[in-house]
Amino acid sequence: MKNMILFFLAFSLAFLPFTTMAISGKNAKNVYVEINTKQGNKWFTARNVKTDKDSSLKLKDVLPGKYKFELDKKDRKSGQTLALKLKMLDKNGKKIKGKAKIDAYIYVGDIKIFINTFKTNKNGYLNLEGIIPNTVYELKVKDNGKISKKNNLARIKTKTKINKSKWFTSSYKRLDSDTTGLTNGILKMTNVLPGKYKFKIKSGDNYDMRKPFIVKARMRKNNGKKIKKPTTVKVYAYPYGIRLKIAEIQTDNKGWITLPKAQPGMKYRLKIKK
Predict the structure, then answer these.
(1) Domain of 208?
(2) Are 211 and 183 in contact (CB under 8 A)?
(3) Using CA atoms, how far apart are residues 188 and 171, in angstroms rounded to an integer?
């Protein structure tokens, strides 16, 4: 075990960010990577995406937490590493818009080993090289994103529950304006997995409880892959804890659905129809 730890420590010297030059991995170009994360005390597949010609992945809306980047057995080769370009969120789901400090760790069995403290670039991206597939990493964001108050558009915290996880904060955003004036605004969500969702308005923000807000969500499949053809999504609500099916919605070719009358405090479930 001691020799194994020393090996991983030596290998982690290659785990370096770059902010001004292209990054690349090794021997893992044009292959699908299953990205598993631990959120709400539960592991689940967050995304399933393909590397580019440089064995690199670009991911947005990345929460702090544990991650494992798994390759299919048929795509595994000796000496493979991945490069990552990550648009980070803070622990409260706020976007990192500037430079922030990120602590990175690697796990050898149950042993957690500190690698280094890295900084995002001015656009909030964390660039990393030397990521070993099928290995557990952890990212901790040490700084906080900022979303300032506006008079007419409320900020909304989204809580999520995936595959029997506990509730965890997945995003914190301000509503976009709805030019019709019939709602409080539009909440745009991407990389949305089938699961349960609930929304909370920031205390003190301007919000008319007589009106709903609109949710526009770009769904992913249960396995984390993008939706590329019209797909039926079942929508449930839980008034007073009672599950009610309220709609079946067809996505477009890119996985987008619209919930026209979402309410803060209500719990919803989104389920891909098989």
Answers:
(1) 155-272
(2) yes
(3) 10
What is the per-residue pLDDT for 59?
95
The per-residue b/e assignment along 222-238, b for 16 or more CB within 10 angstroms, e otherwise, is bebbebeeebebbbebe
Using alpha carbons, select from 38, 39, 37 the residue that is nearest to residue 69. 37
Residues 119 and 210 in one domain: no
Cα dihedral value 205, 168, 269, 187, nearest 10: 30
Distance, in Å, from the CA atom of 258 to the CA atom of 187, rounded to the nearest integer, reads 10
Phi, then psi, of 265 in degrees rounded to 5: 90, -15
pLDDT tens per residue, range 58-82? 999 999 999 999 998 899 888 899 9
* Domain end (from 111, 141, 171): 141
Collapsed DSSP state (helix, strand, coil) of residue 61: strand
Task: Give, rounded to a whole angstrom, the gap between the first and last alpha carbons of the chain.
Answer: 45
Taking every pair of Cα atoms in the chain, the longest distance, rounded to a whole number of angstroms, is 65
Instruction: Say how many domains are in the chain.
Output: 2
- Whether residue 260 lies inside any domain: the answer is yes
CA dihedral in degrees (114, 118, 124, 129; nearest 10)?
A: -80
Q: DSSP alpha helices (H): ranges in the chain?
A: 2-11
Burial 159-196 (b: 16+ CB within 10 A, else e): bbbbeebeebbbbbbbbeeeeeeebbbbbebebbbbbb
Helix (H, G, I), strand (E, B) or coil at 239: helix
- Mean pLDDT, range 176-200, rounded to an integer: 96
Mean pLDDT of 175-196: 96
Last residue of a domain, one of 109, 141, 173: 141
